[in-house]
Amino acid sequence: MMDKLRKEYLFFKQQEPNMKILLLTNMLYALVLPVVEIFVGAYIMRNTSDPVMVAFYQLAMYAGIVATSFVNGFLLKKYNVKILYSAGILVSGIAMFGMMTIKSLGFIELGLAGFLMGAASGFFWTNRYLLALYNTNDDNRNYFFGLESFFFSITSIGVPLAIGAFISQIGGKEILGFMFNISDSYRMVTMGVVVITIIACLVLWRGNFNNPKETNFLYFRFNILWKKMLWLAALKGMVQGFLVTAPAILVLKLVGDEGALGLIQGISGALTAILVYILGRIAHPKDRLKIFVGGLILFFIGTLWNGILFSVVGVIIFVLCKVVFQPLFDLAYFPIMMRTIDVVAKIEHRNEYAYILSHEFGLFLGRAFGLLLFIFLSYSISQDFALKYALIIVAGLQLIAYPLAKNIINQTNIIEHENDK
What we know:
Blueprint: H1 2-13, H2 17-29, H3 33-48, H4 51-75, H5 81-100, H6 107-134, H7 141-170, E1 173-175, E2 178-180, H8 182-204, H9 224-255, H10 258-282, H11 288-309, H12 312-348, H13 352-380, H14 383-398, H15 401-420
Antiparallel strand pairs: 1-2
Helix pairs in contact: 2-7, 2-8, 3-4, 3-7, 3-9, 4-6, 4-9, 4-13, 5-6, 5-8, 7-8, 7-10, 7-12, 9-12, 9-13, 9-14, 9-15, 10-12, 11-12, 11-14, 11-15, 12-15, 13-14
């Protein structure tokens, strides 16, 4: 076992310096992401007891991502990409701390907090895509995203377990003469998040990253191949919003508390992390479509069980399927997206950031549709109906992503083959 681990470590050491630094930075941020994705939603749910408020917060957050992605394009003309990436990492922790200090969580407060959190995420994700695009190639992207997903999967197990245990142990107890309530526990967790983001920025600063040479980034007309990629982004975004909010809502509504939430995700997360790393290590670009469709089918099955049972067992099955689906889907999706950007940017002779920005708009349209569907079903019928069937609807629609991804891959193959002649 030690020999195998040493072999994998040596393989990692062989990668390009910038790629290694980017992976190390993202591994540290992996400790923060579960707090952003899960416990922020759980915090809002606990303080409002309203799933619609969670969905509204998420919608405001996605609007913030799009807004700062647009602003980021202008900032890239003046500032190095690692400065903007570091700002996104730092602000995400600070924005969380600010939200935890809000005493009254109404629509205005949640909208502002969500937008600010999205603003931080916008700087983080768009610059992350740009750095990954420039410091990887099609041959090593499976490994890059496989290793990254491995750590994201591991932290999605360990962080919720640790934080859930911390909150349940310290909440409502007196320590050193101070009575800690649940909100105090969340604030302590957020302070830890801020410390980790600072360390991640220090690691990132060791890299030597370049900005796009072409400064123009705002376009409204694109090659048909990129238009198809935007539809694929919308399908991904449609489900993505639910992946952030639904587990927290369902677990707190049907199962119990944050500790249970972490335990449920931990059941399948460890095996998923190993599976994703192995796939990223050994899978070839031609295998991406198989990984892609496997994740789609698994997620659809999970939503069906949740809708049919709508009980503790149904939630457990859904969360298990979700934990496996997300890294599998991303392992295939991001290399497909980046390869498409490589091809289309050469055809249209444009700044790669133009495609990253438009990709965020595609994701937002999907996210907004999914969350607005949930809000509409909650108000027009009932929250239970929305929790049962909105997931099934978006998971069913997302199955369209398979033939679309297949067509995109085939087209990029044809274009690259013609360019090689």
